[in-house]
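Two folds, back to back.
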Amino acid sequence: MIPVKAKRGFYIAASCPACGAELELESDFLTTSCSSCNSVLRILTPATPPAYVVGAKVFDKDVRFHIDHHLKGNAEPLTDSLDRVRKVYFPYWKIDAILLRLRHRKKTRINYDEETNTETSTDQRKVETMLSPYDITIAAGGLPEIIPCSLGERTEYVPMKPYSEEHLQSGFESLNIEIPWQDAITSANRAVGQLNHVSADEFGVNISLLLRPVLSLINFPYFLAEVNMRGKQRSYVLDGLTGRIVYDCNDSISDQLHIADHQQSAELGRLGVELHRCSNCGEQLPDTRSYVYVCRNCQQLTVLEDCPQLNCRILSVQGSANADDQYFPFWIFRLPAEQTNVFRIRFGGSENVGAICVPAFRIKNFEAMYRLTRRISGAVSELSMRESRELKENYLPVAVGITEAGALAHVALMREVVGKSQELPRALADLLFEEVSLFFAPFHPESYFLVDSCLGAVTFEKSLAGVQTKPVPTSTPSTLRM
């Protein structure tokens, strides 16, 4: 029998609204399909952090067995009796974010002069930008000095269900949420700030920031057991999934807990699942993983992310006649004129004033994304665009949402400013964009690269896009109705 590979990643159990079948939603979801009824489903993320609950796998009758097994392994006497068992959900704040690290390095370059047989050295200053996933769990209540916060990271491997009465197991109590989610973010930022001291900056100031933090409240099951051993009382805390002992002491732990009513967690946000349909005519939308859709029936534009600054039009670059073009999406973030003048921003070129264009397709390599951002930002003022009222099959899905793209735009902007002045103005990190737009630009393959089909000046490697670059047959265009 082939063993089932353990699933890695934050995923949530939910029900299909069409047929009631069980679903497993991974952390990078937008849409999914029900394997039972084939309905295309849309995932609704709440504005406030959602609450989830993890189901216990250990039964009450097994608690004493797990304690005796632990004692036997440590060559200690077994329990005489099990006096009390209490089942509790410990709350953890789970934070998933992007970690930005700006590091100032000096690189010494040795030059050798053959004529004089001498060596000279010069110091070159370089600003390194690194982006990486960052996740941390912080105790939201309970006994953090007893149960380490790191134990909450096991939620990466187990399914969860939205916090509700029907998903709470019999006999389990929830602890009071004593740490607000705003304080959890503050604690995470404080921990990230300590990274600046791990390696000394060789010039300027090292910078570490959390971008786009996503919070969830995870209620994890534990058993609190009090046993009698040779006339003495002893307390144990057991992991509700594995039965492993995570803490033991001679004092009673149960009396230290602050139990909350179920309403406290229920008041937090709750992830929802609905049919992925057009809000105008009810037609089922495509199951592509995209933030932007156009209804095949009524051509209504649907954007799955709210943004007050969004210009609800799709722009398309004009002037290409290549048959094998593919249209790649980009977000344009425009800065207010007064801020542009303050920071002297000419991102990507002297003609570009306050416009940063970020790829709306997935590029895992930040350096490659940054280079393409500079190139397309420098060229955007020379591109002729008009509102597109047709979306063809050779238009790529918008795989990067506005929030994530905005974070990357801030990173690119910070790198641009820090690279010139070696300082990060405090106001720059919280700078708001004036307008956000979406446009598609045509690219065609040449050798190992994709080249823009209008200017022939913007290029990037085929491997970065992760898409097929063969000619794609076009279908009957759809007319957009705004």
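---
second:
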Amino acid sequence: MPRAKRGFKARRRRNRILKAASGFRGKRSSCHAIANEAVQHAWMHMYRSRKVRKRDFRSLWIQRINAAARGVGVSYSKLIGKLSAAGVELNRKMLAEIAISDPVAFKAIASA
């Protein structure tokens, strides 16, 4: 009786991993066992980096708003406090965009 070779499903699973590992260097792109570990690590880093990207952008927006606010003569925390007290519901992404693209409008918002 011939041995069972698992059929196309195992091959499909291996090929899926090898396709995800294409572009990796050395055996990491061609050997299933090594590629599997490399792909698992890559997916772990991708998952984490999707969260970190959001933090990084928020930090960038805050730095841009702070720089523009200090140009107007007020600190970032005072500006955000005044805006929230005044009921201005602009998020940090939009404030940063206004600070870069239209400094006159940002000055008007900051002085309000």
